[in-house]
Specification:
The protein has about 200 residues and is mainly alpha-helical. It contains 6 helices and 4 strands; from the N terminus they run ααααββαββα. The chain has a two-stranded antiparallel sheet with strand order 1-2. It has a two-stranded antiparallel ribbon with strand order 3-4. The longest helix has 19 residues.
């Protein structure tokens, strides 16, 4: 699965926003946005609140669901984040920008994350917008594996779930699994196979 800065990478930003566990302060968003190559990442308090609300809407696009429902959810996001796409040459190569020049960072984030989800659905497979299969996790992730059959957000969750299932079979009773410790602002679904990032700034 080939990713570009406004395609799969923006979808991974969407997944990380979905995995926010509480409304973030603007400072909390800076490392997350930096990790995904977003250049303008200084948000006001009001803009950070806007991104929190947007992240709850992005959440509906991840996990197993009917294709029509997923497309309807992404289309609604595209409609609300619509701007005038344009070709930019700011880094010497032509590529699409999905927000107007001078757009505030919150508007830019809405535009690229909606476009990123659409890119995955249209250029790869809608089922790659997944949710972790581990009990009590369900983190959102973008499946970048070669065969598109990834079921867990990370190798750790896959291993822990395998151990839990082995214990259940061995002892004939469910062994509770615990959710990993969560930083105050967010947890990123990283660590799984095939999760290489490309560089670049948006």
């Amino acid at each position: 699965m080939q990713f570009n800065h406004y395609g799969g990478e923006a979808a991974r930003l969407a997944a990380d926003l979905v995995n926010l566990t509480e409304a973030p302060h603007s400072a909390d968003l800076k490392p997350l946005l930096s990790a995904h190559g977003v250049v303008n990442r200084t948000l006001t308090t009001a803009q950070a609140e806007t991104i929190w609300t947007w992240s709850r809407r992005l959440a509906a696009c991840f996990g197993r669901q009917n294709l029509d429902e997923r497309c309807d959810a992404v289309n609604a996001l595209l409609a609300d984040a619509s701007s005038s796409p344009r070709i930019s040459l700011h880094d010497g190569r032509p590529h699409l920008h999905y927000s107007a020049p001078g757009a505030d960072p919150a508007a830019h984030i809405r535009a690229i994350t909606a476009a990123g989800l659409a890119y995955v659905i249209c250029s790869a497979d809608a089922e790659r917008l997944g949710r972790c299969a581990r009990r009590d996790c369900a983190l959102a992730f973008v499946d970048t594996s070669r065969n598109g059959k990834r079921a867990y957000c990370s190798v750790r969750c896959a291993n822990n779930d395998a151990v839990a299932r082995h214990r259940e079979r061995r002892h004939g009773s469910a062994t509770p699994t615990t959710r990993p410790t969560t930083p105050r602002a967010y947890r990123s679904a990283v660590g799984g196979a095939g999760m290489e990032r490309q560089g670049g700034q948006k």
